[in-house]
Design brief:
- The chain is built from five helices and six strands, in the order H-H-E-H-E-E-H-E-E-E-H.
- With 216 residues, it is of the alpha+beta class.
- A hairpin with a 2-residue loop joins strand 2 and strand 3.
- Helix 3 runs antiparallel to helix 5.
- It is rod-shaped, with a radius of gyration of 26 Å.
Length: 216
């Protein structure tokens, strides 16, 4: 279930106040018997102010983008790390996954390398095994990340059954030519260009660590 936008009330407030002010001015105008010149001038000013409030509210709706609808991902919280990994690799994976989960919209992290799931962290999906499908294979072949901005729109999402079933957005980032960093988000269209560059940098750091400590 999507969370309500907390800024919605603020967006609607100028419009509501403007309409209310206009209605009250109208009621006051028709309930007044003898209208003096000063009251007429006050009514004109009030109508103008009410109109400006409504206009400001409508413009704000256009200028302020709404936050993507976020959901609570289905699945348990967990942190699974391959126990056979060298300690420097474990430390690097723990550090990288922590940064991604605390500084981006990422809610689920999976690191896969040459047939092994090295790490699963965050909200865990129903399956622990990663079977590379068409999208992961293309990422490895092209050495270029894929960002699925709204996962439910892509038929290929079925290959990501190791992520929570209601994952909204996904980034599949290559780790060298041997593995992938797969990130699941709880809101569609929520990763920024800066996030993508940062994720690429983390993947490059993991590549250097894997090359140093994991045998071919």
């Amino acid at each position: 279930m999507a969370k309500p936008d907390r800024n919605e009330v603020l967006r609607q407030l100028p419009i509501a106040v403007g309409i209310l002010g206009g209605v009250l001015l109208l009621v006051n105008r028709y309930s007044t018997g003898d209208l003096t010149a000063s009251q007429a001038r006050s009514d004109v000013v009030g109508v103008i102010l009410s109109a400006l409030l409504v206009l400001s509210g409508l413009l704000w709706q256009q200028i302020q983008p709404r936050s993507p609808d976020a959901v609570e991902l289905l699945g348990p919280q967990g942190f699974e790390l391959d126990s056979d990994l060298p300690n420097p690799v474990k430390t690097e994976l723990a550090w990288a996954s922590h940064l991604l989960l605390t500084n981006t919209v990422t809610r689920s992290v999976v690191v896969w390398d040459r047939g092994r799931v090295l790490l699963r962290r965050g909200i865990l999906g129903p399956h622990s095994e990663v079977k590379p499908g068409a999208i992961v294979t293309r990422v490895l072949e092209k050495q270029k990340a894929v960002y699925l901005v709204a996962l439910n729109l892509y038929p290929g999402r079925v290959e990501f059954d190791y992520l929570p079933e209601n994952t909204q957005g996904l980034i599949c980032q290559p780790i060298g030519d041997r593995g992938v960093l797969i990130l699941g988000a709880n809101a569609p269209r929520s990763y920024t260009r800066q996030d993508e560059r940062w994720i690429e940098g983390i993947a490059d750091k993991l590549t250097a660590t894997f090359d140093e400590y994991l045998a071919d």
